[in-house]
Amino acid sequence: MDTAQQKTSYNNSSDCKPDYVRLASEIKTWGRELGFQDVRIGNANTDMSEAEAGMFAWLEDENHGEMDYMAKHGTKRSRPAELVPGTQRVISVRMNYYPPNAAESWAVINQGDKAFISRYALGRDYHKVLRSRMQKLADKIQQAIGSFNYRVFSDSAPVMEVEWAQKSGLGWRGKHTLLLSRQAGSYFFLGEIYTDLLLPVDEPVGTKGSFCGSCTKCIDICPTQAIVAPFKVDARRCISYLTIELKSSIPESLRPLIGNRIYGCDDCQLVCPWNKFSHLTGESDFHVRHGLDDVTLVDLFRWNQQEFETRLAGSPIRRIGYQQWLRNIAVGLGNAPFSDTVIAALQSRLNDPSEMVREHVQWALEQQHTKKETE
Known about the structure:
The chain has helices spanning 3-9, 20-33, 49-60, 69-72, 80-83, 105-109, 126-145, 161-168, 217-221, 239-245, 255-258, 267-270, 297-301, 305-311, 322-335, 340-347, 355-374, and strands spanning 38-43, 89-96, 114-117, 150-153, 172-173, 179-180, 188-195, 227-229, 232-233, 261-263, 295-296. The protein is α+β, with helices and mostly antiparallel strands. It has 2 domains: 1-293, no CATH class; 295-375, Leucine-rich Repeat Variant (Alpha Horseshoe), CATH 1.25.10. The strands form 4 sheets. The protein has a 4-stranded antiparallel beta sheet with strand order 1-2-7-4, sandwiched between helices. A hairpin with a 2-residue loop joins β8 and β9. α15 (322-335) runs parallel beside α17 (355-374).
């Protein structure tokens, strides 16, 4: 079938408008063919007043820390048409990311000389992977019906992605604030396509905490007690924020609680009962690269800036920059069991050009010396 015939086949004979029911079904099929495990459609005009009020209250309490961009766009986060004029629907997608053959997470976390990196970051940068696939999905729609208005997002703009994923039926918000799925747990990425197409919408499968019951495992396990209430995270205490988003010094009171988590934290997901239903990713881009699933802190601390830039090319970790990378590892080394090797590694960077790195190295050395004295 040529393009003209294909476009015509999506039109109703009576009014020449697209057959949106059929198109929605095809979009979901195309999405799965492109590697998304689920594709759902939400109404961009649905009531978001509760989520919007919650967002502003969270910001007013300064739970966003130094993430100024969270407060920058106001209601554009909750009102799609203010961000992309004419938006009528939100196509939400999810893609599994947990890599096969990765070292068991708790085994790494409990071995203090190792470096734990959140499992979503062991492969290539998901922003690029998801955006590319969603663009291909949009291209397929355009081939079928002709030009239409849309914009794709992957954690890249003021979009309340968990809220839209919940509204569209991809899952429900867990008490740790992440999206949960009865079929897939939480080890997946989310993406969105805003569009003016009047596609039929899917029904939600639940609201906040629908299938969490009385479980509080995610709240109880948090090393820094950052989940200050069900569905509320104080980012200023969250290890993911501290190791990724925070650009200045990590508060000293929180450093010992970080342990060996040098990029992100998976604890709340690791204990979630729903993740027994999670699936390994089939995407080679998300497979482990450079042995980052099971590597010592000392080995990573030895990388010079060129090695950091080269080995982490295409990785989400590269976004934090070399100084922040060293800062995080220094904290991990301070928390590691006493070792002359650790001491030597830290001493090698006592004169680092970065004041922030030097400060964290000095703190780590003090921790190591204290441990030696108590042996």
